[in-house]
């Protein structure tokens, strides 16, 4: 797998080789004049060097320059002969990716390897299964390449918080036009932004205009996740990212922002998650995240946990309903969260009556099951929960 530690470093590369390359005034113009295969090989070498040497890019110019060198991995290529080869391949019923390599005499596609038969399809008149194999190859290679870029995002680092935010904005400018590639490149960008939010939180007392900067940062996170959700099929990943953002906003004590992120997570659940087991997993994630929330007022928290419980109780399968309701019982019995102790002004919510209602609801679901095995499994799960609550409180 490329890049690999087993690969030799190109030309005894030093850590600053890539950044030195950016200082050459005409290198970018020269690169753009090269054929597709050359540009792709150079992009691979750049990523390999950055990851191998853990080269930190600490200015927006560095990030912009490196991603320009890797543009063939970041964006669909639509210029020059590669562009014409793509259109020709579509017209002939072939694969545009194969056409790009045909133009550059790649033996995988043009039959120049031993035996004279293309390894990955090769153009007009190929059978449907050959095109399917080629498409699968494309997806696997793209996923691998985008994984390298995703790792590289975490090397966009600066000690200055405003500069760090500029690095992320610069990266977004490049990634946002990547089409299907954004399913791999935008998640690490949003996670890096949430890491930056924690750094800002540590400077709450000393950072000038702190609240405004935090609001701008969370707006950036919201835009990234929304773009990902709207442009590619990634509902599960976006739900998780919105929950992570909600947790981040909760930790930094932005109640309205945290509430909005939870609303977006519920919206994705309602619009895009329909399979019963996937719904159970999604509701489980929502419940586990809400259980650690501490920033909300009583009304906002009650609205969110009631919504989560109702969604769980409406799952299609009875065992899934019972599992969700049993998980939801913990929303009314909060426990201490490490690093965020309860206070007299904001004590832990511990409503034994609502907990008992959830447990009894699970028992009613068990009694309504036709399958005896499901009934027994639900009773056993409910018993576990009863024993837990008996150990911590008298219900």
UniProtKB/TrEMBL annotation:
Localization in the cell: Membrane
UniProt feature coiled coil, ranges: none
UniProt main location, coarse: membrane
Keywords annotated in UniProt: Membrane, Protein transport, Transport
Single GO BP term: retrograde transport, endosome to Golgi
Family: Belongs to the VPS35 family.
Protein name: Membrane coat complex Retromer, subunit VPS35
């Amino acid at each position: 797998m490329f890049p690999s530690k087993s690969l030799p470093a190109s030309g005894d590369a030093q850590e600053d080789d890539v950044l030195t390359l950016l200082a050459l005034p005409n290198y970018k113009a020269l690169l753009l004049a090269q054929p597709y295969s050359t540009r792709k090989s150079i992009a691979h070498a750049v990523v390999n060097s950055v990851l191998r040497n853990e080269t930190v890019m600490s200015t927006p110019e560095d990030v912009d320059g490196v991603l320009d060198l890797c543009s063939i991995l970041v964006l669909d290529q639509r210029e020059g002969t590669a562009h014409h080869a793509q259109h020709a391949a579509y017209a002939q019923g072939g694969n545009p990716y194969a056409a790009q390599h045909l133009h550059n005499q790649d033996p995988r596609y043009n039959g120049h390897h031993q035996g004279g038969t293309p390894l990955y399809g090769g153009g007009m008149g190929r059978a449907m299964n050959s095109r399917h194999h080629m498409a699968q190859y494309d997806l696997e290679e793209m996923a691998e390449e985008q994984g390298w870029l995703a790792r590289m995002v975490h090397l966009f680092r600066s000690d200055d918080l405003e500069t760090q935010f500029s690095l992320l904005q610069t990266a977004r400018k490049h990634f946002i036009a990547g089409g299907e590639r954004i399913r791999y490149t935008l998640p690490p960008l949003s996670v890096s932004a949430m890491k930056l939010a924690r750094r800002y939180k540590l400077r709450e007392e000393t950072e000038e205009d702190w609240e405004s900067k935090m609001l701008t940062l969370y707006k950036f996170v919201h835009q990234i996740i929304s773009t990902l959700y709207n442009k590619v099929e990634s509902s599960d990943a976006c739900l998780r990212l919105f929950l992570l953002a909600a947790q981040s906003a909760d930790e930094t004590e932005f109640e309205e922002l945290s509430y909005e992120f939870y609303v977006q997570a519920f919206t994705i659940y309602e619009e895009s998650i329909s399979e019963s087991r996937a719904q159970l997993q999604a509701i489980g994630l929502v419940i586990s995240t809400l259980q650690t929330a501490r920033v909300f007022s009583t009304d906002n928290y009650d609205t969110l946990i009631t919504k989560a419980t109702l969604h769980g109780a409406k799952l299609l399968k009875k065992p899934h309903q019972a599992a969700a309701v049993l998980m939801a019982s913990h929303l009314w019995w909060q426990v201490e969260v490490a690093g965020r102790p309860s206070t007299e002004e904001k004590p832990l919510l511990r409503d034994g009556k609502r907990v008992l209602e959830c447990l009894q609801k699970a028992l009613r679901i068990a009694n309504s099951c036709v399958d005896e095995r499901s009934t027994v499994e639900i009773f056993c799960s409910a018993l576990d929960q009863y024993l837990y609550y008996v150990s911590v409180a008298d219900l």
